[in-house]
Amino acid sequence: MELLIAASLSALAVIVVAISKPWQNPARRAEGLHLLKGLRQLLEHLQQHRGLSTGYLGGDRSLKPKVDQTRASIRADLHNLDASSLSCHERWVSFTDHWSRLEGSALTLPVSDNIKQHNQLIANMLQLIEDIAAHHNLLFVTHPGDGVSTLWRELLYTTEWLGQARALGTGIAAAGQSTGVERIRLGFLCERIEALSSIAHADLNGHNQNGLRSLKDAGRTVSVLLSVIETEFLSAAAPKLPATAYFDQATKAISAQFAVVDEMLLALQQKV
Description:
The chain contains 9 helices and no strands. By secondary structure, it is mainly α. It has one domain. The longest helix is centred in the first third of the chain and has 33 residues, at 26-58. It starts with a helix and ends with a helix.
């Protein structure tokens, strides 16, 4: 019993030290930032692949070269990350196994299955990013409410909701028609995008003065995209906007969110 109590107290002491002194291992934090930058790049490419492959499956065969180009980018991302400490991380192993199978089947799947598989893959990726941030003490670098937690949660999840809306809309535009279920799903995504982006941008505004310009651009591009979705997809069953034009418009909104993420990663790097 005494040994059990002693072991418990020892474990508690380790946890307290880890939480109260998160900045005592600069090398560990630097490694974490390196991994996060690589994972952020991979996340963006995966989201692009989902949208492009969905448009291809919807009937726009002109997207095939872009699908191939995005796959090449993903392979490069995987090569750069696999040599790191991620290679023994359980979520990373699960992710790479899932991607290897999806890469080979994506362009032969039904549209709904392709989106579903990508959504699951990216959900795992987002959780991996949070795991890495926590493991390397990058969620406790400053005081609560300074916007750092937003980087790993609301802001990255905003890019994912935007990415899902891009994929679904690109598929609809390529097919030239939509179902009631698809329009309901797009409407739900718009609600999530508006809510999460508002929370993230409000939390960040005032905490990161260098990011004010990118925050304004992020908010503006989201508003423009939501307007396009309302006009082209939610108000009509047969959109007139070409798939490539919608994909590019949605990409502007997503890229603007990632620009804010990149500024915050740079700010964290300067503190390491």
